[in-house]
From TrEMBL:
Protein known as: Fe2OG dioxygenase domain-containing protein
GO biological process, one term: coumarin biosynthetic process
Any coiled-coil regions, as ranges: none
Family annotation (Gene3D superfamilies): B-lactam Antibiotic, Isopenicillin N Synthase, Chain
UniProt-recorded Gene Ontology molecular function terms: 2-oxoglutarate-dependent dioxygenase activity; metal ion binding
The entry's keywords: Iron, Metal-binding, Oxidoreductase
Domain of life of the organism encoding this protein: Eukaryota
Presence of keyword Oxidoreductase: yes
Length: 330
């Protein structure tokens, strides 16, 4: 297993997006610094064009009522396991997303990871740079490393269930999954005085098989297959599971990757820890042969994480989605 841990404030990504939208304001200031200054309005460099702004009024509490929640304790019962696999199949087909509870990761490990991220973001910039390291197991990162390892094991378990829901063997690609690539990113979204004008992260899908997200406050939204944004509620101890582009490719389109975005809170800052899981950097993902037939002809090209990184460095990611480049008949 290869783990990469990143801790960031998303304005670097936001700046690139704004420049592609035609806003090249050079006064781009660190969002956390702006929040600490107590600003009452959003600087021009963060304001999105009207067509890209979040529709805050659309995301009413009722829009979260039927979002799927999977109780993984059902795996321990052979009868309930069959029901769970059906629930996962429905969630993947209808949403490309679900939340999991009773997943086996102790609440103390989750809390330690959140506390560690919060402590880091509260440090001055100079201290953050001093702590930068490629060694995830240094003492300052131990708690985050413990969480990363626990989430890796959860990913292996979830992949077995999802493969079964597709009619594949539970141990399909097991060795490749266990030895796969894991990228963990801790994000901080400061409170925003005008959340209807800006986004923490614009709409996108993730590349890997699964992204497992821990969030402290509401702000994550997924686009359902009717093109409506759905606010993902925070469940104490629960984790968000999103399907990525690799899963769409392997399933030959039976399951779709989840398009999602991060909105902002007018009062509270939001922390999220996202763990993206894929095959190894150079390992190609292909549609499973068992899922290609006359009714479901081969619909995707093979792809690797390396291919995805090359795409990011050479394309306009605002207007071209990577998954669209993989579809044989877009």
């Amino acid at each position: 297993m290869s783990i990469t841990l990143e801790v960031e404030e998303p304005e670097k990504h936001q700046k690139k997006v704004m420049e592609k939208m035609g806003n090249s304001d050079s006064s781009f200031t660190n969002a956390m610094e702006l929040a600490q200054m107590g600003i009452s309005s959003v600087p021009n460099c963060y304001i999105l064009p009207p067509e890209h702004r979040p529709n805050i009024s659309q995301n009413l509490p009722s829009s979260t009522a039927d979002l799927p929640v999977i109780d993984l304790s059902m795996l321990e019962n052979s009868i309930l396991r069959e029901l769970l696999i059906k629930q996962v199949s429905f969630a993947c087909k209808e949403f490309g997303f679900f939340q999991v509870i009773n997943h086996g990761i102790p609440l103390s490990v989750i809390s330690d990871a959140v506390d560690t991220a919060a402590e880091f973001f509260d440090l001055p910039k100079e201290s953050k740079m001093h702590l930068a390291s490629n060694n995830i197991h240094e003492p300052v990162r131990k708690k985050m490393g413990d969480y990363a390892e626990a989430v890796h094991m959860l990913n292996v378990k979830l992949m077995e269930v999802i493969f079964e829901s597709l009619g594949l063997r539970a141990d399909y690609l097991q060795k490749d999954i266990e030895q796969g690539f894991q990228v963990m990113t801790a994000n901080c979204y400061p409170a925003c005085p005008e959340p209807n004008l800006a986004l923490g992260l614009p709409p996108h899908s993730d590349y890997g098989f699964l992204t497992i997200i821990l969030q402290t406050h509401n702000g994550l939204e997924i686009m359902d297959f009717n093109k409506n944004w759905r606010s993902v509620p925070v469940i104490l101890g629960g984790l968000v599971v999103q399907l990525g582009d690799q899963m769409e490719v392997l399933s030959n389109g039976r399951y779709k990757s989840a398009v999602h975005q991060a909105t902002l809170n007018p009062v509270k800052r939001r922390l999220s820890i996202a763990s993206i899981h894929s095959l190894a950097l150079e390992k190609k993902v292909q549609p499973a042969q068992e899922l290609v037939n006359e009714q479901h002809p081969l619909s995707y090209k093979g792809t690797s994480f390396r291919d995805f990184l090359d795409f990011l460095s050479s394309n306009d990611i605002l207007h071209l989605k990577y998954i669209d480049t993989l579809r044989k008949n877009p």
